[in-house]
Amino acid sequence: MTASLRLGPLLRHPGPTTATVWVETDAPCLVRVVVDGDVTAAERTFTVHGHHYAVCTVEGLPSGSVLPYEVFLDEDRVWPEPDSPFPPSTVRTVHPDAPTRLLYGSCHTPTGDTPESMVRYGHDMLRATARRLAREPVEGNLALLLIGDQVYADEVQDSMLGFLRRARERDGDEDTPVDEVVHYDEYAELYQQAWSDPQVRWLLSTVPTLMVFDDHDIRDDWNTSAAWRRAMDEHPWWHTRVTNGLGTYWVYQHMGNLSPEDREKDPLWTAVRACEGDAADAVDAFAWRAHTEPSGYQWGHHHDIGSVRVLVADTRCSRALGEGDPSDGSRSILGPQGHDWLDGHLTGGPDHVVIASTVPVLLPHAVHDLESWNEAVCAGAWGRWPRELAEKLRQDVDLEHWAAFRYSFRRLSDAVGEVSRGERGPAPATVLFLSGDVHFSYLARAEHRDSAGDGDGTRTAQLVSSPLCNQAPTGMQRMVHLSLSWPLRLVGRALARLARVPESGLRWTMESTPYFGNTIGEVSFEDREARASWYHCPEGGADALPRVRLRTRI
What 3-state class would DSSP assign to 332? Predict the structure, then answer.
């Protein structure tokens, strides 16, 4: 039987002399990646729940190279596709001295830019970025950070809803929700629909891409609190859902984040490669352990791209959800292992340090204070009876960012202060938080309260670009604008003080008015300079090219 390419190729981990290419096929086969007609990597597919995958690492490439590649399944060339309107897909290796550009964004709903979808969701910025890069080749180091909600397992489009309904009718499954993804085959179809658009597919085949999950990759408000987890455990389908959500995340997203060396050390990768048949049991067992033992696996990953250190943090799966004193670490957004991992890599030395956190570290001040107040009340700062109301508010209004995990916020603030003062090695020029999640984009400039304040030290900023394709409804936009008002900021500060919330180690100002359209962010680094840009499509149809909405020096 001749195998076909079901999904991909995706160009993943960027290395100085290696390139990693991920594919899904519709049958077992030998996958070969041929770079520039010469350098070849070959891997046999492995199987999970009847789906077939391969991860090929091409080695021995020159640093800083941009070279075309082809994909073969057995003897058949399947990529590039015949008559493709796009330039040949390329592998890109990192050059240590070259300028670096990072594209980033979150919250992507696949719509195809139909007239109807653009009214509700806006332009798809992954598609628009593909059109831009096809016309404007980028020199130097380049990577794309997809920081959350690559797929929406709980808010599906009509095409996916039809797939789910047919599956429920075929299986006679009346206990599983018809409008949410639960089973492995359903997640596989969800990724298929998200990444098979020709423009998105070409973009992911030619730009090294790093990924991390947020809540909708699993379910809205995933791990908001211990009470949320207890409520989900009561659903008979939740065990299957979280197992397949994390299992497919490891296969489709996380595996490609790892360097070849780190992948070989990964225990699940070793188990999958050693399996002679279907590795479903190994993947399922791993995924359930990752859910029930959050500190048992490190989802965070780090990368040195030129002079930029990129730390991609797991702010979802590894959360510690204790319900005691917020200052003792029993409740944290990274969990104990995640904090130790971040501390170990958050050091001086690189010219720039980027912390990719799906949820923003720095929010509008009123929201920050409201979340900190809510955590304190949930922990009993106002006695026993308000706790239940505070927990309901936490879940209803999504009060679950860094400010709602004050132990984590303080620990990160202290670490950033130490890095900025040169206490962890030579101070970088910038420490940048790149985030998404909130469905609006903004810039906040920050400094540590213990900094010298002479303007010559490390520059710290929060950059948010969200969504890629899922623009916020009008009601949400009004709430955000209200949160920026001085009266609400004073109310938030008063509530925080009444709950005895200590002041933050970081202070910040919102430098830009929140923008609610779809955007993709870009940060360019050269020597010790950094510039941030936000691209959008203010007008035009499905072929519109993105324009710079805001560009500023950090």
Answer: strand
